[in-house]
């Protein structure tokens, strides 16, 4: 899998001055476009589109300093419709406009070329199982919140604090299948998974029955799920679990992620410092 991802990176590098189609990158990596975007973001730490933009502006910066092409030629070569658009993007990355950089020989920023390799850390194995589920419903209360990569998500915490005990009790009683109990459900995320992009968060349960009129509902089609378990400090262990699933488990197993909600069942210690977690990710087998 990592070898194919690196072939996709080589394709990016050889097409920086051309249109880069994510469908072609996914084809090279022998995976879906959805999974390629998610896996790239998890491995690289930035979105695919941001990496391509920064690589283009890195190479364009070298051409600006070389002085062999006009600034407009360079702008058009790397996909900018006007010199003004190129200048804005150039200044955002390099802190100086292309004209000034050429006149004064400014020091520019650089986005290095990436390659991926698997690093094995520690000796513990990741606990997981594969589950087939029929169609079910996520029923509870929903809010739209920004994605936070590190630490507690303050908007989710505020949302949960604002739910009255009676509502939480009623939602909890609707749980009739695994994962049991009240869950944190993430859905409708931006493909880039970039910090600050928004998602739908449900404080909800999984059930076969329809939602009462005053509760929110998400119907989830039948499919395959990979279920991961871990324990550790809260909330870091939960966020590391998401990271490890995409940077370690997916590259080593014949599955890819598919569109759908991600279900997190969390049980906190009395002081809320530790957590036992069960993470459900929608998956499908990759082609052999």
Beta-strand share of residues: 15-25%
- Oligomerization state: single chain
Please work out how many helical segments DSSP would assign. Answer: 10
- Reading the helices and strands in chain order gives HHHHHHHEEHHEEEEHEEE
**Could you give the distance between the termini?**
11 Å
Largest sheet: 9 strands, antiparallel
Shape: elongated
What is the CA-based Rg, rounded? Answer: 23 Å
Number of DSSP strand runs? 9
Mean pLDDT: 89
In which range does the helix fraction lie?
25-40%
Low-confidence stretches: none
Task: Give a brief outline of the structure.
The chain has ten helices and nine strands.
Task: Describe this protein's structure.
The chain has 288 residues and is α+β, with helices and mostly antiparallel strands. The protein is built from ten helices and nine strands. Strands 1, 2, 3, 4, 5, 6, 7, 8 and 9 form a nine-stranded antiparallel beta sheet that branches. It has helices at residues 2-14, 22-29, 33-44, 48-66, 71-77, 83-94, 98-104, 154-161, 165-173, 236-252, and strands spanning 127-133, 136-146, 183-187, 198-207, 216-220, 223-233, 255-257, 262-268, 274-285. Helices cover 39% and strands 25% of the residues.
Which SSEs are present, and which pair or pack?
Blueprint: H1 2-14, H2 22-29, H3 33-44, H4 48-66, H5 71-77, H6 83-94, H7 98-104, E1 127-133, E2 136-146, H8 154-161, H9 165-173, E3 183-187, E4 198-207, E5 216-220, E6 223-233, H10 236-252, E7 255-257, E8 262-268, E9 274-285
Antiparallel strand pairs: 1-6, 2-4, 2-5, 3-4, 3-8, 6-9, 7-9, 8-9
Helix pairs in contact: 1-2, 2-3, 3-10, 4-7, 5-6
């Amino acid at each position: 899998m990592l070898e194919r991802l690196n072939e996709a990176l080589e394709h990016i590098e050889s097409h920086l001055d051309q249109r880069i189609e994510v469908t072609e990158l996914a084809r090279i990596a022998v995976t879906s476009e959805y999974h390629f975007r998610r896996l790239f973001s998890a491995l690289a730490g930035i979105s695919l589109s941001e990496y391509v933009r920064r690589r283009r502006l890195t190479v364009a910066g070298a051409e600006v300093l070389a002085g062999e092409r006009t600034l407009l030629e360079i702008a058009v070569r790397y996909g900018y419709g006007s010199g003004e658009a190129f200048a804005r993007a150039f200044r955002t990355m390099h802190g100086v406009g292309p004209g000034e950089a050429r006149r004064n020989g400014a020091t520019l920023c650089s986005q290095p070329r990436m390659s991926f390799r698997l690093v094995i850390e520690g000796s513990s194995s990741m606990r997981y199982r594969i589950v087939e589920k029929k169609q079910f419903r996520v029923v509870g209360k929903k809010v739209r919140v920004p994605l936070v990569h590190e630490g507690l998500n303050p908007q989710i915490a505020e949302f949960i604090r604002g739910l009255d005990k009676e509502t939480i009790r009623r939602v909890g009683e609707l749980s009739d299948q695994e994962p049991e109990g009240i869950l944190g459900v993430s859905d409708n995320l931006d493909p880039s998974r970039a910090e600050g992009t928004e998602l739908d968060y449900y404080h909800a349960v999984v059930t076969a029955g329809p939602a009462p009129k005053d509760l929110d509902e998400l119907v989830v089609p039948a499919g395959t799920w990979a279920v991961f378990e871990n324990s550790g400090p809260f909330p870091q262990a939960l966020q590391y679990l998401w990271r490890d699933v995409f940077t370690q488990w997916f590259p080593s197993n014949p599955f890819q992620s598919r569109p759908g909600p991600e279900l997190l069942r969390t049980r906190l210690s009395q002081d809320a410092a530790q957590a036992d977690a069960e993470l459900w990710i929608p998956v499908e087998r990759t082609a052999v």
